[in-house]
Design a protein that fits this description.
With 245 residues, the protein is an alpha/beta fold. Helices cover 36% and strands 22% of the residues. It folds into two domains: 114 residues, NAD(P)-binding Rossmann-like Domain (Rossmann fold), CATH 3.40.50.720; 117 residues, 3-Layer(aba) Sandwich (Rossmann fold). Helix 8 crosses helix 9.
Length: 245
């Protein structure tokens, strides 16, 4: 049985290809919503929760996993680290599917969310955060709160987190992407955005359209670099991943 750490569109494609080839698959996602997006199949089992290293080791033994495919988001570093450690301790092969990085000109690169927040602290103008919900505190605790607008998944626990951080309903843009260039421009214009903070999620995550539309409007773009993880057996081609199981 193959363990696929998913929660991404890439992961869902990998799962479908594995099932087509006759593999039995155990897929994991961090949320129930992520699990609901995966097509059901009699050769597929889905676990929807964030897994610790010990939980991964238990699953590997319980289900007789003989290969781990890590297709999580490029910024889900803790999951990847847990998977790498679990694979080493259980002697199970680990393969990483890593989205290709984008090549973007005219952006400001930052190594961390805190570094970007510090840079924005004394600037003027509205800021659109398109970084998910896990690192909002870096900005809420550093930048004037009224300048922040957050675009993220419209899930109740995520909206509640924004509210708990003191953000007003008008600052919370609950939407699911990826978004077209035209929609991005409309949002930037409506909220009078001067700064865009984004991650390098690759073209499949809509980063290209996000950046192109911001450039067109003269918006300052802050790109948070991907966390540096030493992956073994990493590929940016899905077919190569499956060939190397």
């Amino acid at each position: 049985m193959i363990l696929v750490l998913s929660g991404t569109k890439d992961g869902r494609i990998i799962i479908e290809k594995l099932i087509e080839k006759g593999y039995k698959v155990l897929a994991t996602t961090a949320t129930e919503y992520g699990g609901a997006l995966i097509k059901e199949h009699h050769n597929l089992k889905i676990i929807s929760k964030r897994l610790t290293e010990n939980e991964m080791k238990h699953i590997i033994k319980e289900y007789g996993i003989n290969c781990i495919i890590d297709a999580t988001h490029p910024y889900a570093k803790e999951v990847s680290k847990n998977a790498i450690n679990a694979s080493k301790k259980t002697l199970v092969k680990y393969i990483r599917y890593e989205r290709s990085k984008g090549e973007y000109e005219g952006v400001r690169n930052f190594k961390s969310f805190k570094e970007a927040a510090d840079w924005l602290k004394n600037k003027q103008g509205n800021i659109l955060l398109t970084i998910g919900s896990n690192n909002l505190e870096a900005f809420v605790n550093t930048v004037q709160k009224e300048r922040l607008y957050i675009r993220l998944l419209p899930m109740s626990k995520i909206i509640k987190k924004c509210e708990d951080l003191g953000l007003l309903p008008k600052q919370i843009l609950g939407m699911q992407g990826p978004f077209s260039k035209e929609l991005n421009i409309a949002i930037y214009s409506f909220y009078n955005i001067k700064y865009l903070v984004t991650k390098d999620s690759g073209d499949i995550g809509g980063t290209k359209e996000k950046i192109e539309s911001a450039k067109e409007m003269g918006i300052d773009i802050l790109l948070i670099e991907r966390p540096k993880i030493k992956y073994e057996n990493a590929y940016n081609n899905i077919d190569k991943v499956i060939e190397n199981i």
